[in-house]
Amino acid sequence: MQRVFAMAAFVILLFFSFQIEGSWRADGKGLSIWDKFAHTPLRVGDSDNGDIACDSYNKIDEDIEVLKKLKVTHYRFSVSWSRVLPDGTTNNINEAGLNYYHRLVDGLKAANIQPQITLYHWDLPLELQKVGGWLNETVVQRFRDYADVLFSRLGSKVKFWITLNEPYIVANLGYGYGTFAPGIFNKQYTAAHNLIKAHAEAWHLYNDTYRATQDGLISITINSDWAEPRNPHKQEDVDAAMRYLQFFIGWFAHPIFKGDYPEIMKSIIRRRSLAAGLPQSRLPEFTPEEISRIKGTHDYFGLNHYTTVLASPYDLGNQQDYEGDRGTRQTHDRTWIGSGSFWLKITPFGFRRLLKFIKEEYGNPAIYVTENGISERGVVDLNDVFRIYYYENYINQGLKARVLDEVNLKAYTAWSLMDNFEWAAGFAEQFGLFFVNRSDPDLPRIPKNSALRYATIINCNGFPDPANGTHECLKPE
Ligand code: GBH
Fold first, then answer.
1. Gap between the terminal Cα atoms of the chain
2. Which of 83, 133, 198, 442 could connect to 97 by a Cys-Cys bridge, CB 3.0–4.6 Å?
3. Sequence-separated (6 or more) residues with CB below 8 Å from residue 393
4. 17 CA → ligand 1 middle, Å
5. What keywords appear on the UniProt entry (predicted)?
6. Residue 153: how many CB atoms within 10 A of its CB?
7. CA 223, 236, 167 angle in degrees (round to 5)?
């Protein structure tokens, strides 16, 4: 493998509230849809829940020590909406909950680690779900109010905001397939519509009211696989791969970066809806005013990426849902190396191609990779060579995109710092650079070998010289 040695602007690290905080009812916190979902039988593997998680609510100092060992410059985490606003509204601001984030942010800054805050990483206040959650358009104003509280209270100390993490997952898994909270079926287009509007309102609020004094960046994190045609010589497979991408990344990126949904989504969903005798398309329409309000609500392109699929056509007849509309079957090449997650194959080449696609499709935006990583399942081998392989090869492809393709890649963030609550998979799928020993009540964070390797890469801001021991850094020619 020819490695690219140019430097990344910075290499950073991440994290999210429900997956690590625990303390699900501490200090006045309200319940979220994930608290409820995880306490519903058969929803989460091994009946795991987030009641304790990694106990990060009580381990600020320990977590910061671990981050210092990694030498990261930034730490991405999310705020639990119902910890700050227990019923989801500003009728009651829970100062104790807010205080946790103040202490975390202050601790990070004292350690010279910049905080990056995600406002919403999937744990909607349960009270808001009772009136429909993301299906009820009033959630847009609720989200704006919540964002207002965080900007006004934390904004003087935080320079990097992410409104929503992976709206695709919220809409499609939460409100489409029903495999994630709140477990609703086939309402993904409505949920997505409100997610996009909520993002836009939070961006405008920051832009109009806070940017002048706080001078930070705010945008959204969109996730996407890369899709290759299963047979590159078949036009129908090429078309299927393009549909896969437009129905995935385009669903959210197109309205925010270009205005409105991708043409291909609009036309296919309308045609199939009318053919089924519906009076109108199942894809809601933005008004011209809404389009101009949404278009351009980004300071950067936040990207979460893990893997690649092979696409071919999939005719589901008259089936009136996302799968039927997209009409694409996804498979994997059986030579691709797997992971602890059935959906995640090691495919570094797809990372570079996706970055180039974003550059060309969305006007060469500044790209911040906000998640990338790999899992194991079950017993953790601290000598996690496959994870080292994954990070080295994906980071290398990221650098190739930056240097050779001139993609405006600004930052790279690993997922994740430590093993945590992996949603419907519970604690069985582990993405951590640090192993969390759950059979020890202290939940110690123990470095896997990948953590040492990652720290070395960060220290070098690029790759160390393989011929010169682990800490010698190669300089670009
Ligand atoms: C990210 O989502 C999340 O932001 C993060 O919280 C998560 O821990 C990380 O990935 C690792 O999964 O079993 O069919 O329901 C990435 C998107 C969401 C893709 C969950 C796989 C499970 C598929 N992932 N999804 S399924």
1. 17
2. 83
3. 1, 346, 348
4. 15
5. Glycoprotein, Glycosidase, Hydrolase, Membrane, Signal, Transmembrane, Transmembrane helix
6. 17
7. 15
One DSSP character per residue, 368-405 reads: EEEE----EESSPPSS-HHHHHHHHHHHHHHHHHHHTS
Closest to 77 measured CA to CA, from 16, 33, 131: 16
Angle between helices 95-110 and 60-70 (to 10 degrees): 30
Pocket of ligand 1 (CB under 6 A): 16, 19, 165-166, 169, 173, 179, 223, 304, 343, 371, 415, 422-424, 431
For residue 181, report the distance from its CA to the centre of ligand 1, in Å: 13
Ligand 1 atom closest to residue 165's alpha carbon, by position in its atom list: 4
- The span from the CA of 12 to the CA of 398, in Å, is 14
Q: Which of 31, 76, 66, 27 is nearest to 49 (CA)?
A: 31
Backbone phi, psi, residue 28, to 5°: 85, 10
Task: Name the band, by pLDDT with cuts 50, 70 and 90, for residue 466.
Answer: confident
Q: What is the helix (H) or strand (E) element at residue 243, kind and residue range?
A: helix 235-245
Active site residues: 371
How close is the Cα of 435 to the center of ligand 1, in Å? 19
Percent of all residues in the chain with a pLDDT value above 70, rounded to a whole number? 95
pTM above 0.95, yes or no: yes
CA 425 to ligand 1: nearest atom:
13
- Neighbouring CB atoms inside 10 A of 435's CB total 20
Question: Residues 131-178: pLDDT tens digits?
Answer: 999 999 999 999 999 999 999 999 999 999 999 999 999 999 999 999
* Beta bridge partner(s), residue 223: 304
Question: Alpha-carbon torsion 421, 424, 428, 430, what sign?
Answer: negative
Residue 9 confidence (pLDDT) above 50: no
Verify cis geometry, omega within 30 degrees of 0, for the bond prior to 416: yes
**The pLDDT value given to residue 458:** 87
Record the tokens describing residue 384, joined without a space.
Answer: 């996690």
Q: Report the alpha-carbon distance of residue 345 to residue 340 in Å, rounded.
A: 9
Under a CB-based contact definition with an 8 Å cutoff, are residues 261 and 283 in contact? yes
